[in-house]
Amino acid sequence: MNVLIWGSVLLITIIIQSTLIPLISIRGIYPDVLLIIVVSYALLSGKENGVGMGFFAGLLQDLASGGIFGIGTLSKLTTGYLFGLAERKVFKEHVLLPILATIVATIFNGLVGMLLLLIFGYKVDLIAALTQNIMPLMGYNLIVAVPIHHAVYRLIKFTAE
């Protein structure tokens, strides 16, 4: 039952992120809702669950984006694992948790994606990617991080009952 609920959440999110959210983009940048869900879920559920959520969220994103297959999967998987490691060390209901986690996760996820591109032989301008993509994405992610984190927190409580 739990897998069906979270699978549905990811599926609905990727549909919304692929169709509606680009309509509110600024210079082609729009929030990565899947990343915020992965980070929140990993912080609240641990590294094993974070890896699974990151894998499936990244896989759905790779399938929907049409970009280089595997970049989203590997970057979200590693992000889910990293934030899952902090599960026992954070106060889960603190309002600063999603804000700080989103800042770190957006930068980390972007850097992992760029590193993977470099490994695959693509040329990446690190400074341009940071200033023109990752930093604006971080600002946009911060706007939606707190409500999404609280929704994930409530859904985890609901599915645990």
UniProtKB/TrEMBL annotation:
Taxonomic superkingdom: Bacteria
Keywords for the protein's UniProt record, in alphabetical order: Cell membrane, Cell shape, Membrane, Transmembrane, Transmembrane helix
Chief localization: membrane
Listed transmembrane segments: 6-26, 33-57, 63-83, 95-122, 134-156
Keyword match DNA repair: no
Localisation per UniProt entry: Cell membrane
Membrane topology reported for the UniProt record: Multi-pass membrane protein
Coiled coil: none
Pfam families attached to this UniProt entry: MreD
Family as reported in the entry's similarity comment: Belongs to the MreD family.
Protein name: Rod shape-determining protein MreD
